[in-house]
Amino acid sequence: MPRFIKIISIILMTLCPATAFAQQTIINVPSSDVLPYGEIILKQSNKFRPFGNGKYVSLTPQLIMGTGKDTEISVEAGTNIEDTTSVKLNLTAKKVFRIKKSARFTVGGTLSPSLTEGQKPDSMIYAHGSYLCKKTRTTITAGGFVGGQQEMPSLTGVMLGIDQTIIPNKLRVAVDWTSRNESWGVFGAGLKIRPEPTTSITTAILIPNSSEDRIAFSISISKYVGKVLPEFAKKEEKEQGENL
């Protein structure tokens, strides 16, 4: 495990995607939530665009695991079905710094190689700060990124997000936005519903920044599995409640 974490850290510091974020997210923007060491979330994300010539369906299974010291890695395989079918592997890592009880600073990145096309991988590195207003139960996130499509990260942009609790541990409203007109530039808004403590369902509408792209929709289901490495577990505060 230490060698694997080291490899992920190297990826994070050098190349890290843009077309899909493979970790816990607000809607599209990575969140500051992080799993304790050895705990796992399984997630199935589905996106579809039913209108016009740009119709597509995207199916993405994902595994997220806490690696200790407020770090997290995830692996996902995204299958995009259009006129042809393409598959991308997204490898993601992030580190969360707890500034205060209500404030966090997150850095992370993703490397996204294609498994079906002979292309260079997409890449992204990002950093943002998050603040929780306890009175209103509102989390505000703001930061920036450097991304690249089939190249080293070179394109800079902004990411923003708001996560509003309506019914604690039951219902939240989430909105986020990533700048630029590339494939990752999109406004997302949706609901996060928790029918039971270990399951979360997120539905959202995705509005691209580019006028050439069309509106899409997404639905994802997350299942908290629990700790899978108890023999190596450290005494960390359990954060299951806000990790889905």
The quaternary state of the protein chains shown equals single chain
Number of strands: 12
Judged by helices, strands and strand pairing, the structural class is: mainly beta
Largest sheet, spatial ordering of strands: 1-2-3-4-5-6-7-8-9-10-11-12
Termini separation comes to: 24 Å
Spatial extent as radius of gyration: 17 Å
Question: Any overview of this molecule?
Answer:
The chain is mainly beta. It has 1 helix and 12 strands. It has a 12-stranded antiparallel β-barrel.
In brief:
The protein has one helix at residues 2-14, and strands at residues 39-49, 56-68, 71-81, 85-100, 103-112, 122-133, 138-148, 155-167, 171-178, 186-196, 199-208, 216-227.
Top keywords for this entry?
disordered N terminus; globular; 244 residues; twelve-stranded antiparallel β-barrel; mainly beta; 57% strand
Secondary-structure map:
Elements: H1 2-14, E1 39-49, E2 56-68, E3 71-81, E4 85-100, E5 103-112, E6 122-133, E7 138-148, E8 155-167, E9 171-178, E10 186-196, E11 199-208, E12 216-227
Antiparallel strand pairs: 1-2, 1-12, 2-3, 3-4, 4-5, 5-6, 6-7, 7-8, 8-9, 9-10, 10-11, 11-12
